[in-house]
Structures are given as C-alpha cells and as structure tokens.
C-alpha cells in the first residue's frame, strides 16, 4: 500500500491532532481512546494506515508506549511495519524510517498482524518489555518465535484467545518473561508448558484458564519449574486435568492469588494440599466448582 510522502492529517481532525504533530518528538505514550482530544478521527473512517503513518513519520522517536487496540478495525499489517520503521522512503534530506525504536509497551489487539510483519517489528523494536496480541488471529508459532528471539527484554506477553498456539515457540522465550496470559489458548500442549517452565523460572503471573488441551503433566511441569509464581488463573481446566493435577499447585509456596473457578474436580484433598503449602495465599476463587 502506497502512503503519500507528504500526507497530512485531515483537517476534520481536532486541534489536538496538530498539537501532536508539532510536539510528537516529546511524546512517550500514544493511544487512540475516543474521548482524547487529539485522537478523534470522525469523518475520515477511523484510524487508518495512512493516518498512523502521518503521525509516526513526524517524529515519535521517543515513544515508549503505543496502544492501537481501541482503533484496530481499519489497520493492516502495513501499520505494524510503520511502527518498526521498516518502510523505507527517500526524501530530500535522506532516509526516512526507523520509527519507535524505544518502544517498551505495545498493544496490537485486533490489528491484522502476520508472521512477516511481527518478525520485522521485533527486529526493529528490540526494547519491547510488554506486548499484547489479543484477537490477532494470524499470529502463530512462527510469528511468536521471531518475537521471542528478537525481544530479549520481554516481561509481559498476552496472547489470550490464540487458537493455533501449541507452545512450540516457548523454547525461545527470554528468561526475563514473568507474566504470561494464555487464556483460552485451546491448543496449548503439555510440551509447550514444559518449554515455558524451562525458560521462565522467574514467572510471577500466569493465566492458563480455558487451555483445554492441557493435562496433569502440563500443570506439574509448570508448578515444578516455575515455583516463584505468585498469581495463577486455572479456571475451566480441560477434561484431562484431574484433582491430582490440581494438587501440584501445592508446589507454589509463594502463591498469593489463585483462581480455580469452574472446576468441578476441586475437592477437599486439593484444598487441604493447597492450604497447607501455599501459606501466603490471600485470594482464592472457587466460584462454580460444585459438581453437577
């Protein structure tokens, strides 16, 4: 998709948009909440690749946080390339590109992201610490493999609802990763959990609710290797998780928050094991654990 070299934000944009263009080099955070004065794009069909490029190319090199999750509907993989500055454009003063090199937090939920665009982005934005990719249905194992390979400072990864993720890419996870949100990753396997446990021994928070392909072995591998977990969400466990698997939670002696809701396999033995071992526990959710 060709972006006009000298394109400007449409005149129907609010006064704040022009403030953004003249003060872009000072910005460290940018999102597109509808109520924000300089992020209203009514009359131009919403936030598009062209509008985003118009903003970024005017100098957002100090941007450390970018959230596109509230306006993803008209963005394509081109927008992801814009963030990484992969678009090479020659202008009279030289080469234009390499935007957002200092990004630490990025939310692309709902944006069209594929393997090539995430690979390019991760090669450029190597300082990323937090990334959210909810409802990014084209992001698979290979795309995440590149992300984990290139972004060695990742601390927070959210891929909730990824229907194709099995966890093969987890062997590339950096040891800095302490927060994983894997809710309803329905194909996540025990082998994937083994990779995660081996690479991320400092894990603090993990959500594996609705990961219905996991078995007792996956839960055991997680709790044996990531014993520093403080918050665990294991709601709606799959049919191959038994009360024996839940008893493995007793390995997490530093656990403070636990969600076991919607698990009919929770019984007195499970609760006794957890209560005896997890002495720092302050929050326990057992909602809808009654047997039918």
Short description:
By secondary structure, the chain is an alpha/beta fold. It is built from nine helices and twelve strands.
Fold and architecture overview:
It holds the Pfam family DUF7885. InterPro entries: FBXL15_LRR (IPR057207), Leu-rich_rpt_Cys-con_subtyp (IPR006553), LRR_dom_sf (IPR032675). 27% of the residues lie in helices and 12% in strands. It is built from nine helices and twelve strands. The strands form two sheets. A ten-stranded parallel beta sheet has the order 1-2-5-6-7-8-9-10-11-12, with no helix packed on it. β9, α7 (216-225) and β10 (231-233) form a beta-alpha-beta unit. α3 (77-84) runs parallel beside α4 and α6 (190-199) packs parallel to α7. The relative contact order is 0.07. Residues 1-24, 35-44 and 86-97 have low confidence and may be disordered.
